[in-house]
Amino acid sequence: MSQKPQTYANHIRLHPPVHYFVFPVFLVNVVVAIVHEVRHPGWLSGWLVVVSIALFMAVGFMRAYALKMQDRVIRLEERMRLARFLPEAQRASIGELSVKQLVALRFASDAELPGLAERAWKEKLTQKQIKQAIQQWRPDTFRV
């Protein structure tokens, strides 16, 4: 099965079961619990509202924690990649890059990585600016 090449325009990935089913179901559950509390006030309906909100938050936190873990792995991979491709004189500047900058740099080709990394730390480029500056996109199809 052939896929379109990844670019800035199409690099954002949604996981349909999570984004279009799990999140909406838990959000609707919160609304239903609140409506039930309003129509039938009591300690049990109030407790259902609290539990519904907690479950919705838990699902959101689980997603956020998974993304944070991926960012940590990407940070390590990109620091190693930069150490391989940057000239010796620039390697000391790797630590000046933020996690968001490193996450964005993962899409840069090996050829443009050194120049773009230097621009990122000198010009304090944002994640979006880095991604938009990439000429040869290096796809990352593993992130969810």
Structural summary, described in words:
The protein has 144 residues and is mostly helical. Helices cover 64% and strands 0% of the residues. The mean pLDDT is 93. It is built from five helices and no strands. The chain is elongated and about 70 Å long. It has one domain.
Write a brief caption for the model.
The protein contains five helices and no strands. It is elongated and about 70 Å long.
- Structural class designation: mainly alpha
Query: How many domains make up the 3D coordinates?
Result: 1
The total count of strands amounts to 0
Give the integer mean of the pLDDT values: 93
**Helical stretch tally:** 5
End-to-end CA span:
19 Å
- How much of the polypeptide forms β-strand, as a percent range? under 5%
H and E string:
HHHHH
How large is the radius of gyration? 21 Å
The level of helicity is 55-70%
The major sheet is characterized as: none
* Shape annotation: elongated
Are there runs of 5+ residues with pLDDT below 50, and where? none
Looking at how many chains there are and whether they match, the oligomeric state comes to: single chain
